[in-house]
Amino acid sequence: MTLPLQSTATMIAVGTGALLWIAEGILPFFRVRSSRGRHAFVNLGLAATNLLIILPADIATAAILEQTGATFSGLRGYLPDGTPGTIAMLLLLDLWLYLWHRMNHEIPIFWRFHAVHHSDAELDVTSAWRFHPGEILLSELVRLPFLVLTGAGIRELIIYNLLMNPVIQFHHSNVRLPERYDRILRTVIPTPLLHRLHHSTIRSEHDNNYGALLSIWDRLLGTLLIGPVEPTKALGLEGTSGPDWQKWSTLIQKPFRG
Fold first, then answer.
1. In 62-92, which positions are buried (b, 16+ CB within 10 angstroms) versus exposed (e)?
2. Is 224 helix (H, G, I), strand (E, B) or coil?
3. What is the pLDDT of residues 64-107, one digit of tens each?
4. β partners of residue 175
5. For 53-72, what is the mean pLDDT?
6. Measured between alpha carbons, how far is 217 from 209 in angstroms, rounded to an integer?
7. pLDDT higher than 60, residue 244
8. Which residues pair with 28 in a beta bridge?
9. Cβ(258)–Cβ(118) under 8 Å?
């Protein structure tokens, strides 16, 4: 069952990305200051590089979870069977991603890598995949003990990704969404308005709104920030978001520079 589910998750992610890319060209929120194609090329170049880590890591994770799951059920053993247990596990996976994202802002060594994501001054759907390979590797390594302890299964991970990836693409997108719709949606999921504040050049703003799939964790843990965002708002990081930094090779080197 997991292979067809993974294929469905991949098709949904690709389809959502394509639709949002088209929508950004029709109803952009921010004025595009450079070539959309060049911007996407850099971001998707990083994404392609990260596949060299993600694919073998996913295979290894699946093997480890299958091996450990045969003798150790973890927290999953205390959850109800069926749909209620699956929903509880999905909530735990989303809480983990919130906490991991927050750690990337609060722990200096993690921030050095995560800053590559935040150095994008022109937020759009391709920004959802702009991550340094070092961050991806750290994420896979740090997440594994959590998955073992919770007893998460491969099927639940795939279902979570199926739901989470389109939402992440949506809240990174440069689509002009009427405020009333954004207000309704952000009661459940992170929205473009919330995530534009998260990508602000102002540190007190971008250290908020960490949610991936659900906005509930920001609400419960005091990191929800709601405020006006104008189309002229500056995004990115001071000093490292200029054109000279927007190259694959430069972004790869960024965490290792002073």
1. eeebeebbeeeebebeebeeeeebbebbbeb
2. coil
3. 999 998 888 999 999 999 999 999 999 999 999 999 999 999 99
4. 28
5. 92
6. 9
7. yes
8. 175
9. no
